[in-house]
Amino acid sequence: MIDYTKKPEYHYRPAKGWINDPNGLVYYGGRYHVFYQHAPDYETPWNQPMHWGHAATEDFIHWEELPVALTPGEPYDGGGCWSGTAIVKDGRLYLFYAAISAVSAAAMAFSDDGTRFLKYARNPVIPTFPPEGGPDFRDPAVGRIGGMYYCVMASGNPKKKTGNLLLYKSSDLLSWEYSGVMCEWENCKYAECPSFMQAEDGLCLLSASVCPNDRGHYFSVMYGTFENGRFDVKYSACPDKGPDQYAGQVFRDHLGRNILITWIPGWDYAGYAEKDIGCMSVPRELKCKDGVITAFPVEEVRHLLKSEDPALRRTATGFTVERQGREPCVYEGEIRDLQLIRDGYILEVFVNGGESVYSILL
Questions:
Q1: pLDDT of residue 118 exceeding 90
Q2: Which of these, 239, 260, 264, lies nearest to 351 by C-alpha position?
Q3: 288-335, pLDDT tens digit by residue?
Q4: Domains of the chain: which residue ranges?
Q5: CA nearest to 179, candidates 197, 157, 164, 194
Q6: Which residues contact 325 (CB under 8 A, 6 or more apart)?
Q7: At a CB cut-off of 8 Å and minimum separation 6, what does 48 contact?
Q8: What is the mean pLDDT of residues 241-269?
Q9: Residue 72 above 90 pLDDT?
Q10: What is the structure's pLDDT at 281?
Q11: Are strands 356-361 and 240-243 parallel, antiparallel or unpaired?
C-alpha cells in the first residue's frame, strides 16, 4: 500500500496546507525561488482565498520553506492572489499575480531581500480584460525581450470560443499598454498559466495550459519568433503527458537554462488523503534540437535517475505503471531510452531523453 501521508524527499511540498500551481519561478540572491498557490490553514482548496507560498533552494534537493509571500486582503485581491510570475530588475524582485475580486486583474508586489514583499501602491497594474478577452483573465507572465518588458495574460473569448494569450508591454514594469492578441486557440474555454521568455538560437519560448471545450487540458511548449506583438510558432510539443500534473511554469535561469516545474498530481486529487498530497515536480530542462522539444531533469537531480522501478512494468510495446485504485498509465511506442525518478508516491518517467514525460501519482 502507498503511504500518501509520508512527505516526498525531493519533491517540494509545504509542511502544512494546500499547494497547487507553481508561481514566480526565479533565480535571485544566489538561490532558486519557487512560489506556489497555497491555502496555509487547510489541506483542501477554497476554504480560504489563495495565498502565495514560498520556498527556496540552492540545489533542487534541499528546500527551505519561507514565510508566505502574498496574502490576499486588499480591495483588488480579496478573492485571492492567484497565479503569476517573477522577474528581477535592478536588483529588486518583482512578483506579478492575478488579483481576484469582483473582476480579475493583474497586480504587482516587490522585495529587496527576496523574503518580505510589499504590494505596489498603485495596484492593479492591469485593471481588467480588453474586448478580445473575457472574465477568465489571469496568470500574468512577465518577461524582458529586446529591451522591452512584456506581460502575457491568459484569457478566453466566450463569443468566439477561443483561448487567448493577450499581450501588454512596458518600459518600467509599472505602466502597461495593451498590444493585442498574441496567440489564440480555437474551440477552447480559455488558456491558463503562460510563460514567455527569450530562448536560444534567436527564438522565444512560450508555454501555456490550453483548455479545449471538448476534452481535457494539455500543456503546450512552443518555440518561435516574436515580432510586432505576434508569436509565430516554429516548433511545438506537449512533452508532459500527465496523467497527474497541471499548470507547468517555465523560467530561464542565470545559466541560460529553460527550466520547467509542474504541479503534481492536479485537481482530481483534492482531499485524496488526510494531508494534501500535492507537490512540485523535479525541475526539467527544456531543449529544442533539430525541431524536437525535450524535457529532462536538470543536472542537479540527475543522480536520482534510475532505469527501473517495481511500479513500472515493461511490455512488448512500451510500459505500464500501476496506480493504486485507479487505471494504469500505459505507454505504447518506441523506447530508445527510459529513465525515471521515484520519490515515495511520485514517479516521473522520461522516455527517449525527455521527448515524452509521465508525471504519475502511484
A1: yes
A2: 239
A3: 999 999 999 999 999 999 999 999 999 999 999 999 999 999 999 999
A4: 18-302
A5: 164
A6: none
A7: 39, 40, 41, 42
A8: 96
A9: yes
A10: 98
A11: parallel
Determine whether 242 is exposed, middle or buried from the number of CB atoms within 10 Å of its CB (0-12, 13-18, 19+): buried
Backbone torsions φ then ψ of 41, nearest 5 degrees: -110, 0
Residue 353 has pLDDT above 90, yes or no: yes
Spell out the long-range contacts of 204-209 with Cβ–Cβ below 8 A and sequence spacing 24 or more.
Answer: 204/145, 204/231, 205/250, 205/252, 205/258, 205/286, 206/152, 206/165, 206/231, 206/233, 207/248, 207/249, 207/250, 207/260, 208/154, 208/163, 208/165, 208/183, 209/246, 209/247, 209/248
Give the mean pLDDT of 161-181.
96
CA distance 334 to 332: 7
Q: Does residue 189 register a pLDDT over 90?
A: yes
| Residue 112 among the catalytic residues | no
* pTM beyond 0.90, yes or no: yes
Neighbours of 84 (CB within 10 A): 31
Can you tell me the distance from the alpha carbon of 165 to that of 154, in angstroms, rounded to the nearest whole number?
5
Catalytic member of 3, 21, 90, 139 = 21
Average pLDDT over residues 212-234: 92
- Report d(CA 83, CA 22) in Å as an integer: 8
Q: Spell out a b/e string for 18-49, using b for 16 or more CB atoms within 10 Å of the CB, else e.
A: bbbbbbbbbbbbebbbbbbbbbbeebebeeeb
Give the phi and the psi of residue 354 in degrees, each rounded to 5.
Answer: 95, 15
C-alpha to C-alpha distance for 130 and 112, rounded to whole angstroms: 32
Tell me which of 316 and 1 has the higher pLDDT: 316
- For residues 76 and 124, the answer to whether their CB atoms sit within 8 Å is yes
CATH number of 18-302: 2.115.10.20
Number of neighbours of residue 169 by Cβ within 10 angstroms: 15
Q: Which cell is 136 given?
A: 477568465
Grid cell listed for 44: 483542501
The residue written with cell numbers 472574465 in the block is 135
What pLDDT does 107 receive?
98
pLDDT band for 242, please (50, 70, 90 cuts).
Answer: confident
Instruction: Work out whether the CA dihedral 265, 267, 271, 275 comes out positive or negative.
Output: positive
